Every structure is written in structure tokens, then in C-alpha cells.
Amino acid sequence: MLSIKDLHARVEETTILKGLNLEIKPGEVHAIMGPNGAGKSTLGYVLSGRDGYEVESGSVEMDGKDLLDMEVEERAQAGLFLAFQYPVEIPGVSNMEFMKESVNALREARGEKSLSSAEFLKKAKEACKQVELPLDFLKRGVNEGFSGGEKKRNEIMQLIMLEPKLAILDESDSGLDVDALQVVANGVNSQRDGKRSFIVVTHYQRLLDYIQPDYVHILSKGKIVKSGGPELAKEVEASGYAWLAEAEGADA
Ligand code: ADP
Ligand code: MG
Ligand code: MG
Q1: List of domains in the chain
Q2: ipTM
Q3: What is the spatial order of strands in the sheet that 14-24 belongs to?
Q4: Confidence of residue 113 (pLDDT cuts 50, 70, 90)
Q5: Which of 8, 9, 74, 162 has the most other CB atoms within 10 Å of its CB?
Q6: Contacts of 69 (CB under 8 A, 6+ apart)
Q7: H or E element, residue 160
């Protein structure tokens, strides 16, 4: 599904990702942890094709196609969802209009039938219910005055509506309260279907109490330095990242 090989990427003049490798198969949930500044968010931005993030070398294939060669919209059409891909405030455009347009543009690109207004509304109502947002939320302007928790719920709602093949959720710096954490976790868990894959970026182990990942990777200084199962997250919680410095000391 996703194959990242020896990825080097920079932001402005600074190389941030320095030889990152990651293989994700359909249906897998991969958690990425690591100290602040390790490059976790950068990885998400590079995969989504955000402006200013330049790949220096390496490759990323999604379903055997060169992801790095695709425009941002093409990546979404190929099935990639990045939670912070749609964060802008668009006053005057309702959440509902925006989402319907996004969903149907994607469906069209995937060769699927567009949702009628009634079909869309039904699905949107179910999604609202699932993320515990009131229905009149759909009528509000896109991200207009959303609280932190509402933005999170909205992101998960987009995830549910857009049905991506691979979703990347960056929860590192969002300061989620327990309720929002639970919504994110429930959203991910409800969308796990044996085919859809997830990359969940998180600074703390807490989120992984609710989302049982298949793999946990530790990203440090632009590389994955350790991979394991859920127990690795527990180790990190218990002992922090101090061992990274020691490992690097031994390296040098
Ligand atoms: P993480 O998400 O793991 O905390 P980031 O990917 O946000 O880390 O950042 C990795 C490194 O890249 C940090 O050292 C950060 O200062 C640097 N960085 C991020 N964005 C920029 C930018 N626009 N210009 C220069 N350096 C940046
Ligand atoms: Mg950070
Ligand atoms: Mg980050």
C-alpha cells in the first residue's frame, strides 16, 4: 500500500528527513512516536505534498505508483488523507457544502457515482452522530470559530466521509483533552476495516491506549530508529527518549 524508501527531505535550507524507511500494508495501523522536532509532522507534510517541503532523494510509492510525482489533489484521489489537509477557515461556505463538494470530487476521480443530496445528508448525519457533533454544525462555515475539540471531531468526520485508503493523523501537538482523544480513537477504530491503513503520529502513549496499533515506530532526527509492537509505546512512556541520546552517543 505505502512504501517509503530512504526518504530525504528538507524544509527551506534544512534537511529534516534523513533516510526514512517505512512499509505499510493494507489494514495496518502504524503509530509514529518520537521527541519534539524529530520530523514527525514533516513526514506528514512531505507525503501530502505541501508547499515548501522538498524531497531530496528516496522514493514513496502508493499502490505501486510514485506518490511524489503527484499533485496534492492527485494524492487525495489516490486515497491519501491527511487530517490537516483541510484546516482553513472558509467563511461563507458551509461545512456541508464544502464536504459534499470534496466527497463528490473524490468519488468522481475514483470513478464512483456522486452522492445525491439525500445520500450525502444521510451519511453526514451518521458521521455527525459518530463524532458527537450537533447536526447544525453542518450549516456552520468551514472551520469558522471551531474550538480545538470541534476541529478534531470535524477532521474525523472528514475521514469518515472521504473513505481514504491511507489516513495520516498528526496528534502530536494538538493538546487533546480526553473527550477529543476518545473521538479520534473511536473514529480510527470505526474506520478500521482490514483494508484501510493509518499512520497515527503521537507524542504520548495515551492515545495508543485507545487505538491498538499494529506497529510502533520511533522517529528520531529524521529516521526511524526503532520499530516494534504496542509494547514499544509502553517502554517509551516508562523511560522517555533518553535512550536515544545514548544510542546516538554510541554511534558517534
Ligand atoms: P515533530 O513533528 O517531530 O515535532 P517537525 O517535523 O515539526 O517535528 O519538525 C522537525 C524539524 O524541522 C524541527 O527541527 C523544526 O524546527 C524544523 N522545521 C519545521 N518546519 C520548518 C520550517 N518551515 N523551516 C525550517 N525548519 C523547520
Ligand atoms: Mg513538534
Ligand atoms: Mg509535529
Answers
A1: 2-43+58-193+202-251 (3.40.50.300)
A2: 0.94
A3: 14-24, 2-11, 53-62, 65-66
A4: very high
A5: 9
A6: none
A7: helix 148-162
Whether the Cβ atoms of residue 48 and residue 80 lie closer than 8 Å to each other: yes
- What is the CA(41)–ligand 1 centre distance, in A? 7
Answer yes or no: is the C-beta of 11 below 6 A from any ligand 1 atom: yes
User: Which ligand 1 atom sits nearest the alpha carbon of residue 45?
Assistant: 6
Distances (CA, A) of 89 to 94, 118, 252: 10, 26, 46
By C-alpha distance, which of 149, 139, 150 is closest to 100? 139
- Residues 57-105 pLDDT 10s: 999 999 999 999 999 889 999 999 987 655 567 778 888 898 999 899 9
Of 156, 162, 4, which is closest to residue 84 (Cα–Cα)? 156
What cell does 230 get? Answer: 504496542
CB-based contact 170:83 (threshold 8 Å): yes
Ion ligand 3 residues within 5 Å by Cβ: 40-41, 172
Please report where in the chains the cell 463528490 appears, as a residue.
104
| Among candidate residues 57, 76, 52, the one with its CA nearest the CA of residue 9 | 57
Q: Are 206 and 175 in contact (CB under 8 A)?
A: no
24 to each of 63, 79, 140, how far by Cα in Å? Answer: 10, 14, 36
Residues in the chain, total: 252
Give CA separation, 55 vs 38, 45, 183, in Å: 17, 11, 33
> Whose atoms come closest to the Cα of 37: which ligand?
1
Rounded to the nearest 5 degrees, what angle is found at the Cα of 76, between the Cα atoms of 102 and 165?
A: 105
Q: Are 222 and 39 in contact (CB under 8 A)?
A: yes
What phi and psi values does residue 29 have, to the nearest 5 degrees?
Answer: -110, 120
